[in-house]
Amino acid sequence: MTGSGGARNPGFAGEVLRDLGAGVLTLDPAGRITYANPWAERLLGRPVAQMLGHDAHDLLHRSPDGSPVPRERCLMRSPLSGSRDAVEGSEEYFLRGDGVLLPIIWSATPLMPGGTPGGVVIVFSDFSLHRDAEERAIAHTAALEALTNRLNLLAEVSSVLMSTMDAIAAARALLPLLVPELGLWAAVDLVDAHSGILRRVAVHSPAHPGRARELTGPLPAAQQQPEIIRGDQPVLLEAGRLGGAGAPLAAGHRILFDRLGGRWATAVPIRSRRRFYGVLTVARAGDPLPPPEGETRLLADIGRRLALVLDNSQLYEEQRNVAETMQRQLLAPLPQVDHLRMAARYLPAQSAMEIGGDWYDAFLLADGVMALVIGDVVGHDLQAAVHMAEVRNMLRALAWTHVEPPSLIMRRLDEAVTHTSDAPMATLIFARVEGPEGGPWQLQWVNAGHPPPLLITPEGETRFLTRGHGPLIGMSATMHLGLTWPDAREDLPARSTVLFYTDGLVESRERPIDAGMAGLRHHAAVLARQLSAGTVDDFCDQLLQRLDPRGDDTALLALRLPPVGAGTPRDHGPPPPRQNAHSPAAPERGAPGSLQERAPVQDPTRDTREALDPPRTPDV
Fold first, then answer.
1. pLDDT grade, residue 583 (50/70/90)?
2. Helices (H), 27-165
3. What's the CA gap between 443 and 70, in Å, rounded?
4. What digits encode the pLDDT tens for the residues 174-199?
5. Is residue 470 helix, strand or coil?
6. What span, in angstroms and rounded, lies between the C-alpha atoms of 453 and 233?
């Protein structure tokens, strides 16, 4: 090299080698060290005087275990055999002067002075710095992948758990996400809300699906350990230590290990702020070490998420029960009048708090005529139910006080609702069933914007009674329209059926009302022919089963006329079956205007509720 004046600087090369930042060794054609720069001395912990003239391979090159490397396997010596190519590597070790192995990253380049082989120059650096950085990067990447997998698993768990309000369905859908991802098998034990018995509601084992199904069901009394779910910390189980009676969860979980295998299991409480629900258990295969702490925390998190779902499910059922109970308290039992037979059905809305404003009513008027009502107040909430009760009670009072045609009763009701209540608009049909005992019978009615009644003859002929239509209740008086409701009359054939219903029976998001009414007419005609000897209750039940209304709440009221002359002095035939005591109304309520005191009413849900929660006997 030359200086600023063009003169050669003989010390420049030495300065470069001294400050290169890497060790440099030169070897002669025999492999002996002829030069070592200061960085090589520092990295190797050897003074240059102790290295010059020594065979570099014998002095420095070692295997990872510290043993000498055979010469034929030494890549750094390949340039000495006449190769003109540079070689490099990173999985080699030099022996420092203090006996410590130094991992190196290196390159070896042949020296060719004058075009003839003159040895080799080896440049090397401390690879431990690079390897530590690489290992940290690998560990960091692995940690990110594990975190991503964990977050993805939690997202899947949350998605599955939020897709159902059924506790057992949620547990069964959860376990396939955990196994085999986190373990060998998994199980969920839940405490029955009514009996307090611990039930194994779900077991999942891909290796033994049949055995897993056999392990579900109530746990025997000896395996009932309510204390296992009283804490909020996970419990680590080892199969070999479940033999003792005092081991946590031993009685209930020993059989799981015996039938499904595994050595370790983590049992986490399914616990929320409201209550304890049970235990989630995930077992691992024959790993010698227990599950890592991160996995335990993950399972604990999943247990809390499952508890929140169970909280929501229980709250949903409680709200639905309150809503349905209130709705049934607002419905009336049916009176039993002469040879007329009636049946009513009420289906609550599918959403928990959509109580709805649908109602039916049947009562005797002051002149002895039977009144029938079907109606629907606008809205799907608690306020709608309150307004429904207001409108129903107003109509009862007006119909009882004023013995006059339905059109006048409807006008009075419209004015009363407008001026004395904040109830919104409502649709309804108010009808009078007129006629002497034994017939003939006649229906007189008005319709305030409600779906028309359906008349079904015993032969299966059907038609909608579309006359008598007027505005919705709460519209005419409010808007000062002066609209009226025309009275309509229809002769009712003996043994025919008149069906009153709300729009929930014939309309839904998936089914327009025209298609729903066509389906209602078709199925009613078919059932009239098929159930000619059946009761009006059979007719209602079969009709609901065929139409399968969903979404909105649904009410229907059916009137069955007796044969001609039934109940007259000349009638010597057997009396018709008694009116069914089944009622959508709340139990132990008398029907309004019934000729029978304390008319029997049977709650269709009572048997189920009492089986789950039998009445308590008072303490003696």
1. low
2. 38-44, 56-60, 127-162
3. 113
4. 999 999 888 899 999 988 877 778 88
5. strand
6. 62
